[in-house]
Amino acid sequence: MLYDIIIIGGGIVGLATGLKIKEQKQELNIAILEKENELAKHQTGNNSGVIHSGLYYKPGSLKAINCIEGYQELIDFCDQEQIPYEITGKVVVATRKEQIPILNGLHDRGLHNGLTGTRHITLDELREYEPYCAGVAAIHVPQTGIVDYKRVALAYGEKFKKLGGEIFLGHEVIRTSTQKGYSVVQTKLQHFDSKLIINCGGLYSDKVAQMNQVEPLDVKIIPFRGEYYKLKKEREYLVKNLIYPVPDPNFPFLGVHFTRMMKGGVEAGPNAVLAFKREGYKRSDVNLRELSETLSWPGFQKVAAKYWKTGFGEMYRSFSKAAFTKALQELIPDIQESDLVDGGAGVRAQACDRNGGLLDDFSIRENQFAINVLNAPSPAATSSLAIGNTVSQLALKRF
């Protein structure tokens, strides 16, 4: 069978893309191929569950545009499908005076991105929002919330199938080729013919993109593992909702923070350490070939040279619970090492170019036979329906 569109990747972005195309042109034959035996297993199923407001992103960037649009679409979808969520709000806290200018910049950026109600709060107000939090200055962002993104992704998949879309699980793509004006997608189980490939491969998006490109790709996915602790049940009272630090403006991670989870409990973290395997959720997970590819990439070598101090600190916290606790104590001094129990971990697919640039914005690239979503880290889950709509518009131009 010749499909109009094959989508590679059954995470939240691939599912949202399939749904958006089907909603706009239901007669198209579309299949989603997922290598695992379940949907949303990796980045979607292992994230913090935060509904991001759009505070951090450069006005006019794809992240800002898609996060702000996707935020409302996500809320509306959850309402329609009766998926539980909470708009909790969050505080972003400066713990040192030198962070205040960055905090002020975040406040201004939030307002520029339309986050009405984002405001500086006094330390007395901070204690009203989060009684155990310490800092020298803070802002409150009322739009932030929490949800179970795996549940959201599965609902996308169900709606996609009701509209006639097909989902194939256990179909790992091993190669693509072109013949007679269409693409052949070969999985370990069978092949699929398609007029267009949409690559939403997440941690393997660069590998899939290289399959459908003639020239060598100028970016590589570098996997960063984020490790979490959870607060013991009897200490969850220390956190009411979400508490974030002022992020390092030169590093594309938000720093360790506290998140109340939709499924219950409070997470503390994550750190950000190089994963030795693209799907390496434990320190002991190692894939020598993938690690060698990362270490030999010129861009990663430049990143390592530039951020070695930051990277060493993140790695140290990975192996030292005491060091992790100390980082958390900047926000909540009452936190003790004994309050923390092992939590989960996620792996972030971070695109890195040859010159050592860690791509900050979403990256979508087209060629004759494919649309490649090459970089879609956080807030991709919040933005998923908007990203899906962006990709669908590119796809539908071809039909």
TrEMBL record:
Keywords: FAD, Flavoprotein, Oxidoreductase. Residues 4-393 form the FAD dependent oxidoreductase domain. GO terms for molecular function: oxidoreductase activity. Coiled coil: none annotated. The keyword Heme does not apply. SUPFAM superfamilies: FAD/NAD(P)-binding domain. InterPro entries: FAD-dep_OxRdtase, FAD/NAD-bd_sf. Belongs to the L2HGDH family. This is L-2-hydroxyglutarate oxidase. It comes from Belliella filtrata.
